[in-house]
Automatic annotation (TrEMBL):
Keywords: Lyase, Magnesium, Metal-binding. It comes from the Bacteria. SUPFAM superfamilies: Terpenoid synthases. It is an enzyme of class 4 (lyase). InterPro entries: Isoprenoid_synthase_dom_sf (IPR008949), Terpene_cyclase-like_2 (IPR034686). Its EC number is 4.2.3.-. The keyword Lyase applies. It holds the Pfam family Terpene_syn_C_2. It comes from Streptomyces albidochromogenes. This is Terpene synthase. Its cofactor is Mg(2+). Belongs to the terpene synthase family.
Amino acid sequence: MSVTEVELPPIFCPLEPGIHSRVRDIEARAEKWVRSSGMGGDEELAWIVASHSADFFARFAPTADADRLLVAALWVYWGFGFDDARCDNGPLSADPGAFAALAGRVQRAVEAPSAASASEPYIPALKDIVGRFRAFGGPAQLRRFAVAHRAWLSGVTWQIGNASRGHMPDLDEFLAMRLLSSGGEPTFAMLELATGVEVPGREMHRPVVRALTEMAIAIAALDNDRHSLRKELSRGHTDQNVYTVLMRHQDLSVQEAVDAATRLRDRVMLRFLDVQERVLPQAGEELRHYLSGLRYGVRGNAEWGLRVPRYLSLGHVPGGLDDTPLEWAQRPATDDRSPLRLPAVAWWWDEDLLSR
């Protein structure tokens, strides 16, 4: 099936959109930082800039302090660059042992102000970002980000390990891995750093809040697989995404996999909406702010992904954001609210989740 023959249905996302009023100023400041960061050559930096990561995170935290939002956006630019250069491409993308060694050095740069590396250009840039976080973040916020960052690197290592041995995970393993490798953990952990609103541990560490965070990550990750599908098809890539998993293990065509993945994603969205609606009335002010960020993030990720050259460009020189009006699905692809029979995520439907 060719790229043009795949029919991608509109995204169901009945969540409120938002974007920071100073996004263009923040983007200009971020672009200047990227071009002076030393992370790569001109072409590599051009693709990092074309991720429009300031626009991305400005949709997650539309009321954040502009200076704090800038630093969060810098990490997203850094993350896309690191992902492209060290995770998805290059010699490390097929060598889990070598990548794991690099991941350890990268993580130490997050956790230790004195960590150094003369041989990896992405580490000094990361140290600059995390140093800025330390200048305004509280201890709990910084620790939550560091833990989330480690989770992301562990997921990427898992993914590279699968690729190196030609292993295509089944749907349950894939979702468990994708919750980590998609980068959603550190991205949502930055909500507290960008806004300055810290959720008390007694609320943040409730299982129901963890479930909502995981559901938001899963929805965004599945949306990103959708966003990148046409580019993956155009390049003949057959690596791990929800479509290749479904095609391999359920013997589906590309279009059948698209339809099945859409239903899967919408079932998670329906559960996310149901649980949030029941948690919000009992939530404290700080938790309500965080849950609002999850909603903005899911919607913002979908909207950004439908406009950004990272997904829309099929290998051409990157450009600006597409400003074509977007079409959204008016109803989910399924009304099925029953639990997914996948052990990695079935607990999101536990009957006593809301009381925990």
